[in-house]
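G., before I forget:
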Amino acid sequence: MTDLLDSDVDATPSRLGEVRPLLELQSLSVAIDVGGVEQPILRDVSLSILPGEALGLVGESGSGKSMTAKAIDRLLPDGARQSGTILFDGQDVSALSGAALRSYRSDVAMIFQDPRVAINPVRSIGDFMTEIMVGNRRMRPRAALDSVVEMLGRVGISDGRRRLDQYPHELSGGLLQRVMIASTLLTQPRLLLADEPTTALDVSTQAEVIGILSELQQDLDLAILFITHDLELASAFCDRTAVMYGGEVLEMAASTALQDDPLHPYSAALGAARPRLNERRARLDAIPGRPLSAVEAPRDACSFAARCRHRVDECVAAHPDLRPLEGGLVRCIRAGELRAARKEVGHDAR
Amino acid sequence: MTRAEAVALEVAGLGKTYGDVVAVDDVSFSIPVGGSMALVGESGSGKTTIAKMIMGLERVGAGTVHACGRDRTNPARSLEERRRRAREVQIVFQDPYSSLDPHQTIADMLSAVVRLHHRSLSAADCRDRVAQLLDMVGLHERHGQALPRGMSGGQRQRAAIARALAAEPQIVILDESVAALDVSIQAQVLNLLADLRDRLNVTYLLISHDLAVVRQLTDTAVVMRQGVVVESGSTGQILDSPQHPYTQHLRASVPGPGWVPPRRA
């Protein structure tokens, strides 16, 4: 096993160990060509997901979280140059072709933020859902319909047969997102890439969809890469969470630890910037400046340094590595020292 | 402490139907001058329809709307009347990218609004006013020369707030105005909105589904479901001890430490 995996073992001593990760990203970097200049969009991203595990990927605009999912799903834009390795079940995903690639595409499913954009508006729900079964799987249309109705039932749509004749515009956003989820389950995937799957939904519908994903994760032993901008949602749903910024991972930790004891100043600042449900605060601790994309982030300094309240000269002298700390991984040279100071003061200084 | 407060915005028995669909049914509330009220609800609750009726973008179906003591239930009869109403109530939408003209610089946009409402203003005074507006929302003077596409999402939303303030309104409707912003930027804009309220004594009507944002920015709240008010009162009370089952359900749906998604029936 590589060093990378060993460092992940530190992140979850209780669950990893013997189990082989379902998905493993090893130093994944992606660059695209912009006007003849190669610009990075992902930088040295290493993470792993165990079978049946929910891993959160949290970040703001341009952090690279969606691009990570696209790289996994082999949906990178034309001309993108990728280095590093993506392993699925031990196989190099970039090397797959033909039948092996088709089988990979069945194993890995993706759902997007807005189901109205992702589902063909002029086809009925039944057509949309049976297409893959009849087309790729050579199933008889009637048998395909039966399994579609069963899948709709799994996501809480009990009157599935009636829904088959309906069109996307006749369904609410929450219902349509559930149709989207059901459609991805038809190929019996082992990994679900969920890119902001509840961002466009109402709060109570979001809770429903999260509940459904949670059930599917348990019932089908489905691994989920859950991409969101909402740290609290990721913490509530995911076993572990990675925080991304400027195209790289700044922190990876158990979700509860990330919420109670964030190691990277950015993770802490993100948590502190959100208004609270339980109390009104005189002022929110806003982070100055705006999030940097991978293209803008400095290559020879900490990418968050410009906005960090704990910045010292060393932070801009070299690009920090992702290092183990307190069972997690953190890309900050001051993380250990800052944490010790917080513990000494005896209160959470975020 | 108690004194009769001047009312900035008051709607009474407000209603709207589209064909057989009742979008808004008998909604009443009022906001004192300098106050801040949230209209909380999910899709189809009628909250945006209410905002449109207050703005005059949608005809009032039933009931009345008063802003700054003047009746605006019926459409404006004259250009003068329309402009006066614009000086009373302004709106900031969720997505500044679609609500800003892509071909107009921010400074041009602001000066157009300033001139519309102060037609006797000299060119120099207008420039000063635009610079003041940019400064007020935390934008640099160079942002004035930028087009919306050259700005970040947070900067665009600041520009949209500046445009609303350019008319010197007494009431600003914030229609999901911080919902599309990144977390770190959302905090900046929420702080800005709180500062502006302190400084200008402007009245806010916040339309939002985000209960944490509602807590941070408003004093009172009205919770709506399917066009009907289910609960209203002080924001703190509604969030701390929601009385209506729907409000309780909304509150329980918000993720937080130890949260378990309510299981479906």
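Chain A has 13 helices and twelve strands. Chain A touches chain B through 46 residues (CB under 8 Å).

More on Monday.
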